[in-house]
Known about the structure:
Elements: E1 17-23, E2 26-33, E3 36-39, H1 47-51, E4 62-66, E5 78-79, E6 87-92, H2 96-108, H3 115-125, H4 127-131, H5 138-149, H6 155-161, E7 166-171, E8 182-185, E9 192-193, E10 196-202, E11 208-216, E12 218-219, H7 220-225, H8 230-234, E13 240-248, H9 255-259, E14 262-268, E15 274-280, H10 288-296, E16 305-308, E17 333-338, E18 342-350, H11 361-374
Parallel strand pairs: 6-16, 8-18
Antiparallel strand pairs: 1-2, 1-5, 1-13, 2-3, 3-4, 6-7, 9-12, 10-11, 10-16, 11-13, 14-15, 14-17, 17-18
Amino acid sequence: xxxxxxxxxxxxxxxxxxxxxxxxxxxxxxxxxxxxxxxxxxxxxxxxxxxxxxxxxxxxxxxxxxxxxxxxxxxxxxxxxxxxxxxxxxxxxxxxxxxxxxxxxxxxxxxxxxxxxxxxxxxxxxxxxxxxxxxxxxxxxxxxxxxxxxxxxxxxxxxxxxxxxxxxxxxxxxxxxxxxxxxxxxxxxxxxxxxxxxxxxxxxxxxxxxxxxxxxxxxxxxxxxxxxxxxxxxxxxxxxxxxxxxxxxxxxxxxxxxxxxxxxxxxxxxxxxxxxxxxxxxxxxxxxxxxxxxxxxxxxxxxxxxxxxxxxxxxxxxxxxxxxxxxxxxxxxxxxxxxxxxxxxxxxxxxxxxxxxxxxxxxxxxxxxxxxxxx
Length: 375
């Protein structure tokens, strides 16, 4: 399958996009400029190293191919997930709607049948309050006290309005999938959904160098049974999609574009089902810079990290039975679009049926070593 240039940002001709392309000898970091793909591996052997350069957008490279020659699933120029050695981190419960939905999962113990009644009660009693407070503020503390007294408190509300954000590790290094790849859900999950998000690329010094789109696939039944199952709900084969490229920050694309980004989601089901949703980053409860700060904390990421910022989108539209809401089916086509970041498209399969993740850190080292020997 060839990469669809329509998946690029609307203003891609003035953008500098970074990513990875798989060649016969292994993956190389690339920059996309003016519809042409440049191999910059002579300047930086990995995308992680590229992002540590003073000016990644100016990295020297050799012409590799045109954007129309990129493929997925076979070919000389395989488009891959745009990151490599970066840790894959994620923030949860960063929007009021998602906070309420996490509380619903907890109270329903992962049972989608019980969700509708709980949703109505929580939205009536918590919805307006949680939307109007700044996390960690005095008013947030007052709301917390009132909710505790009313028996409505939850660990999810703690990270929604408390001083500390939820930050977790979404996926192992090198395990993410890119545009056009299969995205996985566990075969034993009966209640799950996509999470369309903006994802920041942060280098080793903590500087944000750009952004991309992401799908933080979530198993609502697993996490709803216990927050201690977050790892199983989030980290599964092919369960994290990123791309199509990292758009590097420059004079025409800054953190303010992230703060004002609008995301559209479309899911086309194999049975003709259609779900559409929208997410506005201006409704996020914590500023992206604050989420990066809390992720850095007292830790150091020598290869940098990418940070999924959370989602406003929480699908409640019934798919099969009234009151059960949405859950994925094998064959769903998921399209996440934001004008300045492009479109991320993936097809849903069971994780056990997605291509096995085999290219890890040792294999990357091997290909880099061989490339240096033969250079």
